Amino acid sequence: MVKTKKRHGGGWRKPKIKDSLRTREAWTGFLFILPWFLGFIFLFGRPLVTAVYYSFNTVTVTPDGIVTNFSRLNNFFFPFHNDINFFRWYFGADIMNFAYEVPIIIIFSLFVAVVLNQKFIGRTFARSVFFLPVIIMSGVVVTILRSTGFDWDQDMVTVDNAFIFTSGGVVTLLREAGFPIGVVQWFGAIANRMYDIVWNSGVQIVLFLAALQSIPRSEYEAAEVEGATGWECFWKITFPRVSPMTLVVIIYSIIDSFDGAMGHVRNMFVRHHMGIGTALATLYSGIVLVILIVVAGIVSRFVFYAND
After folding, report:
1. φ, ψ dihedrals at 148, nearest 5°
2. Between vectors from CA 152 to CA 189 and to CA 156, what angle results, nearest 5°?
3. What is the 3-state secondary structure (H, E, C) of the chain?
4. CA 254, 260, 262 angle in degrees (round to 5)?
5. H/E run at residue 13
6. CA–CA separation, 54 vs 221, rounded Å?
7. Per-residue pLDDT at 244
8. Which one of 98, 158, 197, 260 is at 20 to 30 Å from 287 when CA atoms are compared?
9. Residue 36 falls within a domain, yes or no?
10. Domain with 234 in it
11. pLDDT at 168
12. Residue 24 lies in a domain
């Protein structure tokens, strides 16, 4: 018979078998993140340190190499004094996208994942269709498309197919139904971005599918025996069970939504303002990191872990 506790030094301690199990779990987790950790050190660590160093210097490219002159915080003050459009237009647009597009992507991804998790004819094909944008938007595919003269921003929305991605019908319907102009404009903005929302939801759908398939079927069977409805099963079983993955999806979606200002940063490098460009990138990344920490701290308070 194995005792659950034993006396040790005037106090109680947990059995060694549980301590060894937790140690093995900790080592297993460490081995899982080891490839990423090594890749970060050898592939991203040095460029990251170099970028931070350049952000505090005036960088000049000469035939003999790169020459740096320490400029203190001047590069970081550049967007506040000489390039106010960085925050007003570029970063402001990212904030607006984050405010209304990320919640819609998360809700849409969860809805589609729940549907795709059901058993129906053609389920595998439907899953492939929703993940297809992720494959198309990969670096290799986009490079091939652009090498053939394909302009992604212009050729995808032409005169013949523009009605698919516009909000004219939605706005007209809501306006005639008597909705306030603010509500009409909000739904119109969502309808105009619906193509982008669907296009940017592939990874999120796959993550939610993985979380849904990890839920034991026995929990739903027990709820059905107790007379729970499908709606009650969703809120009492599905939603709490996928909440840890929801946190991952939120973090991924936030990072994915903050990309508009990076085009402006690249323009700085094109104009050979390497110090200012790295300072803008560092500042931009720092702000996004703060937003991630705040959002993750708030959302993690509502995450349910089955092992707790």
Report:
1. -90, 5
2. 60
3. CCCCCEEECCEEECCHHHHHHHHHHHHHHHHHHHHHHHHHHHHHHHHHHHHHHHHCEEEEEECCEEEEEECCCHHHHHHHHCCCHHHHHHHHHHHHHHHHHHHHHHHHHHHHHHHHCCCCCCHHHHHHHHHHHHHHCCHHHHHHHHHCCCCHHHHCCCCCCHHHHCCHHHHHHHHHCCCCHHHHHHHHHHHHCHHHHHHCCHHHHHHHHHHHHCCCHHHHHHHHHCCCCHHHHHHHHHHHHHHHHHHHHHHHHHHHHCCHHHHHHHHHHHCCCHHHHHHHHHHHHHHHHHHHHHHHHHHHHHCCCCCC
4. 100
5. strand 11-13
6. 59
7. 92
8. 197
9. no
10. 85-302
11. 60
12. no
Q: Domain containing 227 — which CATH number?
A: 1.10.3720.10
Structure tokens at 11: 């106090």
Contact yes or no for 292/254 (Cβ under 8 A): yes
Query: Which residues lie closer than 8 Å to 241 by C-beta, 6 or more apart?
Result: 211, 212, 214, 215, 219, 304, 306
pLDDT of residue 11: 52
Is residue 14, in this structure, part of any structural domain at all?
A: no
- The domain tally of the chain equals 1
How many other CB atoms are there within 10 angstroms of residue 54's CB atom? 21
Let me know if residue 4 belongs to a domain: no
Instruction: Look at strands 57-62 and 11-13 and give their pairing.
Output: unpaired
Position 249, amino acid: V
Tokens of 174: 């809501």
pTM, entire model: 0.71
d(CA 282, CA 15): 48
